[in-house]
Amino acid sequence: MDYLESKKKIKQYLLARIPFIRIETTETGRAESILKELATEINLDIMVNSMSKGTVNITNNQKIDESKNIIGVLDFIADNIKQKENQTFVLTDISDI
Fold this sequence. Notes:
alpha+beta
């Protein structure tokens, strides 16, 4: 699937508020670029977690949480979903799940 097709499919999922989207790719940077563009286009906060950086808002690169292990990240997500619905979280390093 090329860049534009991928972007269109991910946009459909985000707009439909699909609760779990799995993107399997070796091109993590490209996937994050698509997410960043879509976050801006559809005015959606997307939080991206990596074990090296913690959780950041992909639109403005603001660090949201320091957790760098899967249990801490899942706890952080659970706490945030209780406070505000329709949040979008992207986990990039999920080998621990």
